[in-house]
Each structure stands twice: as C-alpha cells, then as structure tokens.
Amino acid sequence: MTMKRAAAMIALSLFPRLLVAQELDIAALEGEDWYGLYFGGQKAGYAVSTLSLEDDGSVRLRVDAQFKVNQGGKAQDLRVLEERRYDATGALTAVLSESGGAMQPTRFVGTVQGDEFVLNSRVGGTEQTVRLPRPSESIADALKEVRLVQGDPKPGRAIAYTRFEAMFQKEVTGRTEITGVEERVLNGAATKVYRVETTEQIDESNTIESSAWIAEDGTVLEDDIASVLVMRLEPKEVAQDVDYSNDVIVSNAALVDTAVRDPRTRETLRLRLEGPLRPNHLITDERQELTASNGGFEFVGRRISLDGFTPATLPITDGEAAEWLERTTFIQSDDPRIVALAREIVGDETDAFRAVEKLSGWVSEHVRTSYSASISNALEVLDTLEGDCTEHSVLFVALARAAGIPAREVAGLIYVGTPEPGFYFHMWAKAWIGKWIDVDPTFNQPLADATHIKLAEGDMMQLTRLVPIIGRITVHVDEEQGAAAP
Fold first, then answer.
1. Between 20 and 30 A from 259 (CA), which of 13, 304, 337, 473?
2. 196-234 residues labelled b (16+ CB within 10 A) or e (exposed)
3. Taking the model in full, what pTM does it have?
C-alpha cells in the first residue's frame, strides 16, 4: 500500500519542479534534467524532466518517473508519466497522466474545448468522459519557482498558484515561499541557493508539504516531498543506477521490540505512538481512540461486538451514508460484472452484516495475495484476482456498494508478526450496516481486530493524508500488552 500511494503523489509533486517563467526566454531553457528518486532514504528510481518549445509557440512539460520496487521480496517496475501543454499565451490546453506497473496502466487525458475541460479516463479497461470547468492554471503556475528566485529575492517572498489534478478531477491550490538562502559552489562557481517551502491544499483538511533547494538560475538541486520522497539532481547514468534492494514494506513499518500477544483475538490493545501525526489523523470512533498526549499519541483499540444491535435491511438507499453507494473512477460499483458478482455472492440475504460477511469471505478466498505497486481499481482486481491489501479492499468496497451497502476505503497500520513484529501500513474498509463498522477483507475479518490503527478514511484524495507520515511513525507496546515472558 505505501509505495503505490507515494507513487501516486509523484503526479502531484514533480511538475512544479520544472523551472521556467513566462517572462523568461523559454527557448534558452529547453532541455532535460535527471533526478534520482529516494523513498524512505533508499534509492527507489529515477525521473527525467523535459521542457520543450514547439513550433507554434506552445510549451510542453513532461516528467517520466521509473521506480524499481521491492515489496515483500517481489521485484516489480512502476512508471508514472505526466505531461502538460500550454499555448503561446501560457494557458493550459492539455494534461496527460499515466501510471502503472505490470497490470494495465491507469490513464487520464484532458483537453480544453471552449470553456470546458474534457477529461477522458481509462481505468481497469473501461473508459469514462467527464466535462469540467476550464482550469485557471497557466504556465506561470506550473513553473512558479523560477519566478520566486528571480531578482535577488529575500526570505519571505511567496507565490500562490493553482494546478489541475487529473486523478482528483479538480484544481488544487498551493503556496510556495523562500525561507532561506545560502551560498554554495556549483560547477566550480559560487552561486546562491534558495530554500523553498511549498504547501499544497488537496482538500479542506489535507495538505502536502515539500521543501526544495533551488539554485539562482532556477535549477532544482534537491526536493523533499512530504519527508517521504526525495528527488536529487544527478548525472543521467547515476540517476538510472537503481536496484531492488530496498523492501519498502519492511523499511516503512513501525517495528516493535515487544510482540503483541493474540493480535487477532484480543479484546483491547493500548499503544503509544510517536511521529508527525496531524489532527486529521486522530480518528476516534467505537472501535478505537487516538488522542494526543504528552508530546505523543495514545491509542486504544477494541474488539467490537454486535450483540444487541439489529443490522439494517438491504438495500440501503438513503440516510447519512448514501453518498458512499456511488461509483467512482477507481470503484466501478455500477459495472455489470461487479453488480452480477455481488448478487451472486449475497443472494437473497437482506441482513446487511451477513451480506458483509459473505462479501468479505469471498474476497479473502478468491483474491490471491501478491504485492503490487500499481494504483488499484476494482475492475482490474476482478480480472486478475490477485493483489495486496489495497486490491482486496477496493474490490470489497465495489462489491458492497453494488449490493446496496455503503462502503469506503480505510488506511492506517496493522500489527503483523512476520517478517518482523511490527505495525505495517495497511488498507481495509468501512461498511454501513446501520452504523459504520471496520471490515478487513484481506484477513477475512467482518469486524476488524483491535490492532488496526485507523489514520485516514474516504476516497483516494482523502487517503493521501498518509503520504506525509509513511515510514515516520514509531509504536511502543507496553509489556503487559505484549507477549508473555518465556
């Protein structure tokens, strides 16, 4: 789960690093730069960024990132490609976004047509077209940093910008600011280097922060995206020198010294967490409490019982959770194959929880566990019937919605005893059965156990809240919560 979410953020983070400004001689800045990509401190891939000026005066910006990913001992390649085009006036005219690994790539192509932006998506082998308002983004937004460092600026100078995100089908806003300046020797000559901090607002409560070192000529020397992914300017042959040695699953887990006793059946679990958790990570509900305490965070997880509770009757068509019945780009719950399979699994069952049990059991039994770096969608999982926790969860959510059960994705940490005892980044689901319950189809738990630490829930956009904390959480297990002494 961790690598694919971070890879998705490449699409959100690399383009602002191609530096040129409307008021500069763009033709003089044509060319390409190569970057090594480092995930969790280990080299995980490379990217080439290209700026070209077309004969008609338009500008093409392109980033092509390649990852060599090791997940659970399985080596695989992942590619993230982004391209943006601007006309001679600087207005955005087209966007191409493509990502994928061994499975069919996810592809978005958007073009300006009059006052509209027509966005075509191909996800899981199916195509969809939506018509959106024309984005306000211009080349001045996409290539804003060089404007920031022109004219011998001082710390405190800032620029606001907008950028269209194809995956989210919306424009996001951001602000980039110079926070420091120093002198370095580059290519044998002294040059000013600026520290630039950028904050991008994905939604009302979700931001992605990054920091970069930029030379006075606009060259990005190093960019740290959400303290998770670092891109570093390197010669081409150095940038491309990547192997599969870093297992991103283990390297980003919160390993523990004390193993948790009876993790799947225990009634309660108390833990202390440390790391850069934000208020929007601190989710408290019937199954868990996560609160700030003494410079860290206290977690209490519980095993939930439905004794005395009467589940809702299917289908659930109204109420507070009805919005989570809708199809989305990655949850194709209205596809005829998804609908037919949901009917086959659920049958005549009208008890919402019993239907959840059937769907969770089917997904757990039929989806073969295989680590995947690709960004997942329900139809692709249905075609392959394999994947990790992400694939299990998106298929379950799609089947649940098709069966008339509101459902959404959940992400956070779960305790696993192997390959090393620790809390690993994980995805599961929530389902509405008259109230929300956590469901983990990977482990076939219609009621998720007490070791699940929920940190984000919702759709793809909301789950990006995990990106800034990947690999940065530590978990402490009290000896009374852990294994008995030998």
1. 304
2. bebebebbeebbbbbbbbbbbebbbbbbbbbbbbbbbbb
3. 0.83
